[in-house]
User: Fold LysR family transcriptional regulator from Thioalkalicoccus limnaeus.
Amino acid sequence: RLADLKGLKSGRFRLAVITTAKYFAPEILGGFCERYPGIDVSLKVTNRTRIIERMEANDDDLYIFGEPANAGIEVEATYLAPNPLIIVARADHPLARKPRISMECLARERFILREPGSGIRDSVIHRFAESGLQPNVRMELGSNEAIKHAIIAGLGISALSLHSLTLDWGAGRLAMLDVEGFPIERAWYLVHPKGRELSTIAKTFLAYAVDREPDIRAMLARTFAALRTPTGSTS
Ligand code: PGA
Assistant:
């Protein structure tokens, strides 16, 4: 017990997360550092494929990503929070006011797709394939932030995690489309390789993060409500 407490007074904690968790992981780390100020933390943000490679190489203490059962290696995973995937267009897009848009209609739109290795890319392609369709890819982009800019620049529509819109980014210039089969309900998990003993710090962080779930959920609910009524909409 004394040793445990000592272990939390100083030490290192390395967290690696998929791109969409960067919209919340810093908040969790911030609160954790306030409670345990002696701990040095680091945060790595990259796509799903790279995260799994890092886990195989034992580069970090803990990981946040989705679908841990399909990681390709045996892991222990703890549910953290929802991570819904939505379709986003510029607010003045004609589909922005349409209810129940079909996948066929979506397939005709110019689509901005994430890079190979991205979990979002895989989810999107899978959703199209379920309807026997493919996205009409206008361009590929390796960043959620660049995708938001590209949507606003009129380059097309895309799929984004609701988390990427939680800071009111785009203030009324982006709209969530009401597409059949969306949002895709996904989730984040706290993950580490099976059989690898977590450090005291990592265990403490895990418990701390799990307790933040209601905050994450509340933030998502606020963002969802705001996106349903885009600024400037009269209907
Ligand atoms: P990605 O993962 O960065 O690999 O697309 C993000 C997510 O699945 O939410």
